[in-house]
Amino acid sequence: MSCHLTSNFKQIMPEHSFDGFDRKILDALQTDARLSNVELAERIGLSPSPCLRRVKLLEERGVIEGYQARLDRDAIGLGLTVFVDVKVERHSESSAETFKAAVLSLPEVISAHLVSGAADFLLQVVVPDLKAYERFLTQVLLKIPGISDIRSNFAIQTLKQQGALPLGHLR
Amino acid sequence: MSCHLTSNFKQIMPEHSFDGFDRKILDALQTDARLSNVELAERIGLSPSPCLRRVKLLEERGVIEGYQARLDRDAIGLGLTVFVDVKVERHSESSAETFKAAVLSLPEVISAHLVSGAADFLLQVVVPDLKAYERFLTQVLLKIPGISDIRSNFAIQTLKQQGALPLGHLR
DNA sequence: CGTTAAGTGGCATGACATGCCAAAAGAATC
DNA sequence: GATTCTTTTGGCATGTCATGCCACTTAACG
Questions:
Q1: Testing the interface with B: which of A113, A116, A127, A131 to mutate, by most B Cβ within 10 A?
Q2: Percent residues over pLDDT 90 in chain B
Q3: Domain A80-154 indexed as CATH 3.30.70.920
Q4: Chain B, 48-87: which have a CB under 8 Å from a chain A CB?
Q5: Rounded mean pLDDT of A121-133?
Q6: Domain B18-68 CATH (choose: 3.40.50.150, 3.40.50.720, 3.40.50.170, 1.10.10.10)
Q7: A75–B66: do the CB atoms touch at under 8 Å?
Q8: Which of A104, B45, B79, B114 shows its CA 20 to 30 Å from the CA of B156?
Q9: A30 with A164: CB under 8 angstroms?
């Protein structure tokens, strides 16, 4: 049981230590992850050596999970974003688990959360068009067992997309 | 009116041309945006020169919008993610516009969409904890004029977060 | 076939990442 | 408050990489 201490450590003790340099690094890399180390160092007011050391540490600590290119969905032919509310059947214990496993394997689902409120799960699904969504819904989603209800909310306009996380609360 | 042609061009003619190399580049940079050009080139089976040229082209075309570090929300003390359904008042024409402008300026709102369905807008809000959300809700969101209803759905568990966009439909 | 256009590969140079060590800054102890 | 210990920084050296240029290959078209 004591082994759970380490796995819960992150929740118990969220920020090990973040000084102003770390916060600036995170802020800069959220905006442009391809900054060279020397430019990043200049921007945060530190020389390249310690700057790089800090970045590596943040990566090792898991604070930085990875780096990803942000693509224009329309440009690559993924014009339709749908937010799907999913309810699973209350009875079967394993409904939620099988649903989670299924969802994780679907590339069209780019985010998935267990949520409070009317629905159980909230999925963000990305497909080329309505026809593709129809196919996804009828041939993929609806075939997952244990689903009691699905509600599709189509994104008509995107105001903001995966904006940078606010870092103002750190100091 | 003809000037609208260019602004609509992307929707009319989504993918200008994507061969296998481009798709592999986008795929690789979605997974690891900090890949060096030589490693990227090796991975996609091309020499560094044309590989870099393709990446720059994809950036200029706007296919690649940017690069960003993915941070661990818990690690930086942002333990609470809330999906907020917002309805604006039907009467005032400008309700939606003022709401959009307000939302764009809020760093806690990391994504915002105009959606079909029961709500008008779907926001993703990130805050340290419940107390911070209470403050955000009462002192920020509820003070935006023209809002008729707000429903907060708390993320209890995150199965997948901003996963890579599926590129399988390109050829 | 010859011509042209587009894309590729290799090379050279300048910039950069990265590991090491001495110096500086800060914390703790007496 | 001086000393010691710890931590972090800055500079340097080396090997790797980005980047622009040019010759070569390939494919399409007349």
A1: A113
A2: 81
A3: yes
A4: 61-79, 81, 83
A5: 98
A6: 1.10.10.10
A7: no
A8: B114
A9: yes
